[in-house]
From TrEMBL:
Annotated keywords: Isomerase, Rotamase, Signal
Gene3D superfamilies: 3.10.50.40
Region (Disordered): 22-44
SUPFAM superfamilies xrefs: FKBP-like
Enzyme's top EC category: isomerase
Compositionally skewed regions (Low complexity) per UniProt: 22-40
Protein name, as recorded: Peptidyl-prolyl cis-trans isomerase
Amino acid sequence: MRRSVIAGLLAAVLVVSGCSNGNDDASSSPSPSTGSSAVSAKDAKSHGIGDITVAGKSGKEPTVDFKAPLVAKDSSKIVHRGKGKPVKKGQLVSANMTMVSGNTGKTLQSNYGLKKSAQFPMDSKQISPALFKAVKGANIGSRILLLLNASAQQGQPQQTLVYVIDVTGAKTIPTRAKGTSVPPKKGLPKVKLAKDGKPSISVPKSKAPTKLTVQPLIKGKGKVVKAGDNLTVKYTGVLWKNGKEFDSSWGKSPSTYTVQNIGQARVIKGWNKGLVGQTVGSQVLLVVPPSMGYGKDDNNGIPGGSTLVFVVDILSADS
């Protein structure tokens, strides 16, 4: 599975490992000519975070002003402190962001005006340590200024990138599904849960279903998952033919997996179809035929033509 926490160019810089599952909006991405060559410190006209002015109300797209080019060390400061609760390690943060080129002073990308805020986990193994440090402890409603030296796009030279981040929310994600147990239909794989909620899956010695099977094992009491939602889940996947586990988020760091734009996400069709309509807090058994999985071709150790069995805990869904 592929991790996805922040879309577009923001992801390219702020995410430690991963790539987008969603369809990036090409109109929000800069053209190849937007970037410019690396600038030396002696040629810079601005040299630090104190040379930058950020204007505008929090929650509205900011105006960022400085004399370009800017060459400065990685740093951050709170421009405006919000009145909400402090952001904690392990939470899922929602934010609006603008990214500005230090070389030119031009905006490279912004998600203000879009229907969805960017989301990222407060986990330094998933996001840039600089972003983690800047946001940890900031109150919800805060506006943060972050300088980060990185490449705005693959193949471009590094530059000092200027981020303005408005923290709009933060919530603690449950560690496992929680709700009412649902008896599964006969003939389906059996699932046993460890004390921490990790599933073990036993596959029956029978012919695999030819159609997608969606069986809730735990019915959560949260919101109904709609197409377009961003999900946080845990999962385990095994092969129907021999019960061999081929992938699991349990026991990994991080142990959660983010799916952007479910229904059209860059995951297998069985997930896109099977998870929409379920409720947050649910644990769902998916039996996925090859046509809705990886098809006839081998994929990272999964033989072509395999029927897949997943147990998915739906921990969060945001529109």
